[in-house]
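Appendix B. Raw example, untouched.
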Amino acid sequence: MLTAKIDVTKIDKKRLFKGKPGKDGVCPMYLDIAIMESKPTNYGDWRDEQTHFIVQSVSKEERLNGIKGAIIGNACDRSVSRNANPGNPGPSDVPPPPADVADDDVPF
């Protein structure tokens, strides 16, 4: 499983596009992204868990002209641990939440 965070303030809104209308007649808005694997780090903090970064996709023509999509977020592969610090648990070492936690406990 990958978990991700996207900074929506960094999205180039010119790259948003409308999809086909749904059953309710509303056209959803989409953004093409690319998820790229990042190099392992050893900073000793949360950055060590980031296994991927998320960029806005650009057209093939733009790529050929050297244009790169803006980095808008990062992701973490929760099935692996890249954390090299002993005593600081990686994402796969974190225990699951207790089974008795009800969905009603969610604050939203």
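End of appendix B.
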